[in-house]
Amino acid sequence: MHGRKPLLFALSLSLLAVACNRNAETPATPAAPATLASAVTPATPATASTPATTPPKADAQMQAVLDQLAKLGGKPIETLAPAEARKQPSPADAVKALLESQNKPTTPEAVAKVDNRTFPGPGGAVPIRIYTPEGKGPFPVVLYIHGGGWVIADLDTYDASPRAIANAAKAIVVSTHYRQGPENPFPAAHEDTKAAYQWVLKNAASFGGDPKRIAVVGESAGGNMAANVSIAARDNKWQAPLAQVLVYPVADDDMNSPSYIENANAKPLNKPMMEWFAKHYLGDMAKASDPRIALVDQPNLANLPPTTIILAQIDPLRSEGERLGEKLQAAGVPVTVQRYDGVTHEFFGMGAAVDKAKEAQQLAGKQLQAAFASHP
Question: How far is CA 335 from CA 24, 58, 248, in A?
Fold first, then answer.
């Protein structure tokens, strides 16, 4: 891994610390991000000589989820073989257990219809799940790509996010799985998700979607692959997504960034886990510098869709998400970057238990609706 000097945000990039300014306005459309300074004074970045091994403090709602996750007794993923790691309790399991302990409903967020299918991917049939909101179609369509470090998790693990997006964006959401490492190493997952996008373009009308209004959303490793879908669409002259929402995306191979140092031991994602994911998907760590992984090193980030990047304060991936925002803006892409303080990686799908997750879901929905409205 190579080190980089921290860069400052350009003032024209919107960076909102939501925990400290809950009433701050969010941009109404991804095509015109506001010119805003940070709502808080940034902390002095940790450096390699003065490492901060204690991550920032989680807010009460986030901490309740983390406490519940600890009670579920999962083993550290980085100590396990992939098959065993896939059996460990997830943050989604912790949310459900927390709601049960609070005597709150644990039923998933309602949508009008859920349909499980497969599509023919490059390596065989790929599971997808199609979420249709209430209302009359044809609806815009969002391709959603889940996280899991390219190694763990599936459509069930990430069921909450596509449900929330379907309702917030008033769009059909196609959640796609993909081949995972180490059984299917890099770039298998990337190829599957690009194939999923092509399938959506060709088949949107068959499930009530509008093939002219397509967007992509991804979380973590899925955020990385969503960006790769947009790049592939540009380079191959496919129909371009109208917007991309990247939720704490993997975007760099630098594991000595300020947020990596600050959150080296954070939960539920930390540096040893990211090293484990890279080992099992990439095999050869030299491949981490491939621009499909290190998006900040892409030679051309111009002419990509309006982009919303959603970040968590307590997350080793925060710095690379900020850096990706800078790179996209420098390339002329309309960008909105919004950071939520007091929450961790994986918070986005926790709307049932964490208010800031619901806020982030609503932001994603507004940005997507604005993009769809610009192409009626």
Answer: 17, 27, 14
Does residue 153 lie within any of the structural domains?
A: yes
CATH number assigned to the domain comprising residue 204: 3.40.50.1820
* 315 classed as catalytic: yes
In the set 146, 177, 280, 345, the catalytic residue is 345
Q: What is the pLDDT of residues 304-324, one digit of tens each?
A: 999 999 999 999 999 999 999
Catalytic annotation present for 2:
no
Which residue of the set 59, 253, 315, 341 is catalytic? 315
Q: State which residues form the domain around 364.
A: 53-373
How does pLDDT run across 240-297, given as a tens digit for each residue? 999 999 999 999 999 999 999 999 999 999 999 999 999 999 998 889 999 999 999 9
Active site residue 38: no
Is the distance from CB of 139 to CB of 170 less than 8 angstroms? yes
Q: Which of 43-52, 120-129, 329-338 has the lowest mean pLDDT?
A: 43-52
Distances in Å between the Cα of 370 and the Cα atoms of 10, 244, 362, 373 are 24, 12, 12, 5
**What contacts 301, CB < 8 A, 6 or more positions away?**
231, 295, 327, 328, 330, 331, 333
List the end-to-end C-alpha distance of the chain, in Å, as a whole number: 45
Is 202 strand, coil or helix? Answer: helix
pTM for this one? 0.89
DSSP 251-282: --S-TTSHHHHHTTT-SS--HHHHHHHHHHHH
Question: Does 48 fall in a domain?
Answer: no
Q: What does the block give as tokens for 31?
A: 């095509």
Task: Say if 313 falls within a structural domain.
Answer: yes
Which among 220, 230, 257, 259 is annotated as catalytic?
220
Amino acid at 83: A
Note the Cα 83 to chain centre separation in Å. Answer: 23
**Residue 349 domain-assigned (yes or no):** yes
